[in-house]
Design goal:
The protein is an all-beta fold. It has no helices and 30 strands. Helices cover 0% and strands 47% of the residues.
């Protein structure tokens, strides 16, 4: 779902694009099990949904059983969100079109509905947010760059631009290496911990990458939106493989807790599920999916799929193929889903 918005900046044209590729709103960032996305009155497993059209983040209890609150203060066309291990919420805002670039990342303390601080320096069309133990990483599609900040500070500590071209997704392996999916040059660049220059560039079997995931064995899965495939890179420098059966313009990929791989397909409104070991197609989920933008999975295995026509969030139990509930109240162009750790 390529969504393109243009904002004039110093007589130049700024284009911000999101992980989704067709339609009228930006697609959301890649999904991570139990992550990207808290609260003195919230619990582990609570769900955060960023809505583009009404500039809000809606918070639900685990499983979407009840709506807890709606955050609007500090939200302006949100395009990404994540919650760190301490329950702090980070929301990446594209910003209101106003003739100049107004992107930022709003930060909310656990339980908060008003930003405790706002990160502005280096933010240019945030598409994805990721964490390691000490830093916050923001993929800036309009930069293009990945900017790095301490967890508790607005100070820009590092800018990664070498090899970065329209970054759409971020992921870390167990060794702390950073992986960046670059839409424009069909690559995934790999950066050692703390470094700004890549020590490896992945190109084979990659075409318009828009999502990344690692499984427990450290196999890397790359969703190729225009390639209608998932590239699978084994640990080290082994030969990559490709999954094509059932893959149609993939938007998100999740390595689930039961050794199953989930792929969200925009073109045919499905989630295809594969065995991680054999890559065999196990089942296809289609009920409750219409113009999907992103998906996420809790550590318990509950699957959440955001839809844009109409705006809704479908909730599936582990191994389920039909939604146990569909949420619509307060949703308007949902782009990003986060699960409280």
């Amino acid at each position: 779902m390529k969504r393109v918005f243009f904002v004039a900046l110093s007589a130049l044209t700024f284009a911000a694009c999101s992980a989704g590729r067709e339609g009228a709103i930006p697609g959301g960032p890649q999904a991570v099990v139990g992550a990207p996305s808290g609260i003195s009155n919230d619990a582990s497993g609570n769900v955060y949904v960023a809505n583009w059209y009404n500039s809000s983040v809606v918070v639900y209890s685990a499983g979407g059983r009840s709506k807890l609150r709606t955050i609007t203060d500090g939200i302006a066309y949100p395009n990404a969100l994540a919650v760190n291990s301490g329950g702090t919420l980070f929301v990446g805002n594209f910003g209101k079109p106003s003739g100049s670039l107004t992107s930022d990342v709003a930060v909310y303390s656990p339980g908060g509905s008003h930003p405790s601080r706002t990160i502005v320096q280096g933010i240019r069309g945030p598409f994805a947010i990721a964490f390691n133990s000490s830093k916050v990483y923001v993929a800036n599609n309009g930069g293009p760059s990945v900017t790095v900040y301490p967890h508790d500070s607005n100070t820009l500590s590092q800018t990664i631009s070498n090899g970065v071209r329209s970054p759409e997704a971020l992921a870390f392996d167990k060794s702390g290496n950073l992986y960046v999916a670059n839409w424009d040059n069909n690559s995934v660049t790999v950066y050692p911990p703390g470094k700004v220059n890549p020590h490896r560039k992945l190109k084979a079997l990659i075409l318009r990458p828009d999502a990344l995931a690692f499984d427990g064995a450290q196999n890397l899965y790359i969703a190729n939106h225009q390639g209608n495939s998932i590239a699978v890179y084994p640990p080290g420098k082994g030969t990559p493989q490709r999954i094509t059966k059932g893959v149609h313009e993939p938007l998100s990929v999740i390595a689930g807790p039961s050794n199953e791989l989930y792929v969200l397909n925009y073109k045919n409104n499905t989630v295809s599920v594969y065995d991680e070991g054999t890559h065999a197609l196990l089942r296809v989920i289609s009920a409750g999916i219409a113009c999907p933008t992103t998906m996420a999975m809790s550590s318990a295995g509950d699957l959440y799929v955001a839809n844009s026509c109409p705006s809704s969030l479908s909730v599936y139990q582990p191994s389920g193929s039909k939604p146990i509930r569909t949420l619509t109240k307060g949703l308007d162009g949902p782009l990003a889903i986060g699960i409280a750790p």
